[in-house]
Amino acid sequence: MTTPHALADARSFLFVPGNRPERFEKAAASGADVIVLDLEDAVPAADKAGARAAIAQAWPALQALGVPLVVRVNSLDQPLGQDDLQWFTQLQAPAGVMVPKAESAEALRAVQERLPAVPVLPLIESAAGWSAVPAIAAVPGVLRLVVGHIDFMADTGIVCADDEAELLPLRFAVAMATRLNRLAAAVDGVTVAIQDDARLREDTRRALRLGFGAKLCIHPRQVAVVHETLAPTPQQADWAARVVAADAAAGGAAVQIDGRMVDLPVVLQARRVLARVRTPAA
After folding, report:
1. Residues with pLDDT less than 50, the chain
2. Three-state SS for 120?
3. According to the model, what pLDDT value does residue 252 have?
4. Which of 112, 156, 162, 174 yields a CA-CA distance of 20 to 30 A from 60?
5. pTM above the 0.70 mark?
6. Distance between CA 278 and CA 259 in Å, rounded?
7. What is the CA radius of gyration of the chain?
8. 233 Cβ partners below 8 Å, 6+ apart?
9. Which of 55, 201, 184, 60 minimizes the C-alpha distance to 120?
């Protein structure tokens, strides 16, 4: 059974359209930490009901594969979204529900009341969502915040350069709300250039610098690059291990490593680096 801990520590969330059941097992075999079965943007309106049926039919077999399963429902301000929530209650032990275009704490509290045991992953995708980030992050049941920057740009009219510096206020707000509410590290949005590994690495590095811990993926080939980029380099891991060991040996007193003073803030940074180390099979 998937635990909230597994969802909180996940590095990659791979979308697969709910109306493409032939892709479900391939997605589960991709190495992604979480599979997001999508009922929203990836599914045409005429296929929504069929997508629900396909997910429900495949659900037991997919669960047996041991990969956490999340469903992205449709926007809750539409009848489709409300229908999705009603349908969602039949699924056994989902890892979480991803709520698109989250814009109010009230709407998310309604989700939590209907699905009290299911972790909620709100997508911040609009100016209204950005404005409500502090309230959204404080809703019980919210596990991680997710940035949906493509929809955010469509909503706000923002046009980004390659480095997406225009969206730093959005990502910073999400990072700060995450920290203030002690949520699991936020999840950054997709990289649409599927074949551009260099761009994917740079996007993932930017997310990491801002304190994010995971990224949405739209193709299986992106998963390994995201995992590799989020992991510390051997040099970083070695430094962190030496800092933690030196701190333990010094009993918390300030020490020097590589000619630099090490005190509590540096030790905390080193522990965060070590938390990103995964075994090759993970």
Report:
1. 1, 281-282
2. strand
3. 75
4. 112
5. yes
6. 28
7. 20
8. none
9. 184
How far, in Å, CA of 27 to CA of 16, rounded?
Answer: 7
pLDDT at 281: 46
What's the pLDDT at 282? 46
Torsion of CA 34, 216, 121, 233, to 10 degrees: 80
- How many residues are given for the chain? 282
Q: How many CB atoms lie within 10 A of CB 112?
A: 17
State residue 253's pLDDT score. Answer: 80
Buried b (16+ CB within 10 A) or exposed e, 96-105: bbbbbbbbbb
Closest C-alpha to 104, from 85, 128, 121, 79 = 128
For the chain, give the longest Cα–Cα distance.
65
Phi-psi label, residue 259: left if phi above 0, alpha if psi -120 to 50, beta otherwise: left
